[in-house]
């Protein structure tokens, strides 16, 4: 098993992807197991895409968009927010812990915050994995 | 020799077979040109095994095999495999066969819990009979167990569609099952502005019974939980969908619009993206009431 949990991060083209870009240029450290997928808007990420990623073996999925009220497409991230409620509600129904999904808003000028969110998510998933391992050991 | 037809039912209610018999004169036209070799609802037929009771189940050879119902027990599995082995082409008929159907609602609980609930004995004990069939861990659609050539969902499928499918197969022509949603075949009036709150199925729609269906407001816009957007259409043929004709919301019985779709997720997503209260739904997992196979409905994990 990989030491670091694999995380798929859907970043919007206008804010969070630019922040990730800036984080790279600024040489900020965050776990290397994060896979960033650039989308034009966080509002275009269908819940099925999130579930598909988890079903195919991702440890966690993040949707990161512009700060609320600053969407390039006026209301795209509000739709992402509504959809993220649906995702959080249904993940448990589908057999995944709700911690495996996170939605966040990061502006293009906040690379430190983005790196911090990535680190937190990675740590949370590692803890989740640790808990699962402890459970298996106890089950034996 | 006429082409041979073989029918079999698994975890089913016989509704699909009744739908076939309901197709009226179309059925008579079909019967003249085929030979039915196996049809438990209509014909007496012994189930035999090859050579002395041992080995696999022996079903008559046929060009076309039609199976309704999902796979819930070891016996269903044996019959289904025998059907696959004896039929050149296999059709899954009805939503139970294609998506699990109503019986797959059981997949919400582990099999032990389901049996305990159904066969609850007195004084808190259980009374599971010894003769009960060996249940599988969950209810499967038949394409999860054997390869299927054609699928026709519906609860039951539209009688004319069953005949169309069989006629197309006899003629060697391709058959295209409906690939549009119920909404695309629905004539009700949509304005794009609807209620924010979602009411339950039980609530009545507002309409004028004197007027035709196409003068009624879209039920989803009236705030009724209509599963039209995420359900495969075709139940009403070229006319309005059946439930809409009866002025009640779509229940989702034709399964997801495309194979592999998730009606629960898609419906909540459709509500959320249009600003409707997806959290008003009391029992959201029941949105998978017709498509709980393929691992979509599963027991909730126990959190520590």
General description of the model:
The complex is a heterodimer of chains A (140) and B (304). Helices cover 47% and strands 16% of the residues of chain A. Chain A has one domain: 3-Layer(aba) Sandwich (Rossmann fold), CATH 3.40.50. With 140 residues, chain A is α/β, with parallel strands linked by helices. Chain A contains 4 helices and 4 strands. A 4-stranded parallel sheet of chain A has the order 2-1-3-4, with helices on both faces. Chain A starts with 6 loop residues before the first strand and ends with a helix. In chain A, helix 1 (16-25) crosses helix 4. Chain B is an alpha/beta fold and 304 residues long. Chain B folds into 2 domains: 4-171, NADH:ubiquinone oxidoreductase-like, 20kDa subunit (Rossmann fold, 3-Layer(aba) Sandwich), CATH 3.40.50; 178-298, no CATH class. In chain B, 22% of the residues lie in helices and 13% in strands. In chain B, the strands form 3 sheets. Chain B has a 5-stranded parallel sheet, sandwiched between helices. In chain B, strands 3-4 form a two-stranded antiparallel ribbon. The termini of chain B are far apart. The model of chain B has no long low-confidence stretch (mean pLDDT 88).
Order of helices and strands of chain B: EHHEEEEEHEHHEEHHH
Tell me the overall shape of chain B.
globular
CATH class of the largest domain in chain B: Alpha Beta
Q: According to CATH, what is the class of chain A?
A: Alpha Beta
The tally of strands of chain B reads 9
Compute the number of strand runs of chain A.
Answer: 4
Named CATH topology of the largest domain in chain B = Rossmann fold
CATH superfamily of the largest domain in chain B: NADH:ubiquinone oxidoreductase-like, 20kDa subunit
Q: What about the largest sheet of chain A?
A: 4 strands, parallel
User: What structural class results from the helix and strand content of chain A?
Assistant: alpha/beta
Here the CATH topology of chain A equals Rossmann fold
- Could you tell me the radius of gyration of chain A in angstroms? 15 Å
């Amino acid at each position: 098993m990989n030491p670091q949990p694999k995380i798929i991060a859907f970043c919007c083209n206008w804010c969070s992807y630019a922040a990730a870009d800036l984080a790279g240029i600024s040489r900020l450290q965050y776990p290397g197991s994060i896979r960033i997928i650039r989308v034009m808007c966080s509002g275009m990420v269908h819940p099925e895409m999130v579930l598909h990623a988890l079903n195919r073996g991702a440890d966690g999925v993040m949707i990161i968009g512009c700060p609320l009220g600053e969407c390039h497409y006026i209301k795209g991230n509000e739709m992402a927010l509504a959809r993220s409620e649906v995702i959080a509600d249904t993940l448990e129904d589908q057999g995944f812990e709700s911690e495996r999904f996170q939605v966040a808003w990061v502006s293009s000028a906040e690379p430190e915050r983005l790196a911090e969110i990535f680190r937190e998510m990675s740590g949370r998933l590692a803890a989740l994995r640790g808990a699962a391992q402890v459970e298996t050991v106890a089950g034996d | 020799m006429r082409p041979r037809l073989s029918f079999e039912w698994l975890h089913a209610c016989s509704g699909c077979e009744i739908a076939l018999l309901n197709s009226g004169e179309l059925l008579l036209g079909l019967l003249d040109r085929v030979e039915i070799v196996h049809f438990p609802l209509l014909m007496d037929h012994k189930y035999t095994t090859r050579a002395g009771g041992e080995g696999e189940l022996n079903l008559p050879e046929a060009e076309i095999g039609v199976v309704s119902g999902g796979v819930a027990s070891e016996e269903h599995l044996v019959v289904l495999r025998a059907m696959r082995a004896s039929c050149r082409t296999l059709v899954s008929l009805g939503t139970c066969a294609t998506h699990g159907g109503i019986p797959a609602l059981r997949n919400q609980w582990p099999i032990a819990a389901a049996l305990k609930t159904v066969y609850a004995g007195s004084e808190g004990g259980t009374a599971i009979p010894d003769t009960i069939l060996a249940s599988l861990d969950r209810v499967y659609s038949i394409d999860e167990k054997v390869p299927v050539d054609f699928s026709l969902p519906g609860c039951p499928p539209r009688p004319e569609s069953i005949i169309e499918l069989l006629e197309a197969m006899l003629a060697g022509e391709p058959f295209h099952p409906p690939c549009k949603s119920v909404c695309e075949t629905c004539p009700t009036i949509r304005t794009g502005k609807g209620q924010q709150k979602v009411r339950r199925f039980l609530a009545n729609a507002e309409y004028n019974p004197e007027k035709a269906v196409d003068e009624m407001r879209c039920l989803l816009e009236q705030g009724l939980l209509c599963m039209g957007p995420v359900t495969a259409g075709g139940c009403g043929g070229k006319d309005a969908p059946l439930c809409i004709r009866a002025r009640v919301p779509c229940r989702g019985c034709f399964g997801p619009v495309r194979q592999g779709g998730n009606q629960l997720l898609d419906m909540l997503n459709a509500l959320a993206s249009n600003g409707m209260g997806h959290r008003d739904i009391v029992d959201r997992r029941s949105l998978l009431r017709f498509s709980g196979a393929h691992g979509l409905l599963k027991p909730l994990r126990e959190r520590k």
